[in-house]
Write a structure and sequence with these properties.
The protein is an all-beta fold. The chain has no helices and eleven strands. A hairpin with a 6-residue loop joins strand 4 (33-38) and strand 5. The protein is globular.
Length: 115
Amino acid sequence: VQLVESGGGLVQPGGSLRLSCAASGFRFSSYVMSWFRQAPGKERELVAGISSTGGSTNYADSVKGRFTISRDNAKNRVYLQMNSLKLEDTAVYYCNANIWRNDYWGQGTQVTVSS
């Protein structure tokens, strides 16, 4: 299993970023995919999840209405569109696949929101 995130960077408050996660080594279309984040000194937290078909999504309360998770099963990719970014969104963002109760993680991509 390999998960490779991209798309992070430095953005001003109110700005937008789109994260992408390229997945390989497993049947991508069969599994729930999620985005987590970890800020300095804090525990890793769930940001958003999406069902295998993309028909169902869930979000942390802190990002509802601002972030959108989506997936392209033909391309084995999951995305996180982040709008109206806030200072508190600064974190390393990780792509996650839970396969047969085992968690797999990418290396993470840094998102820094700063003026």
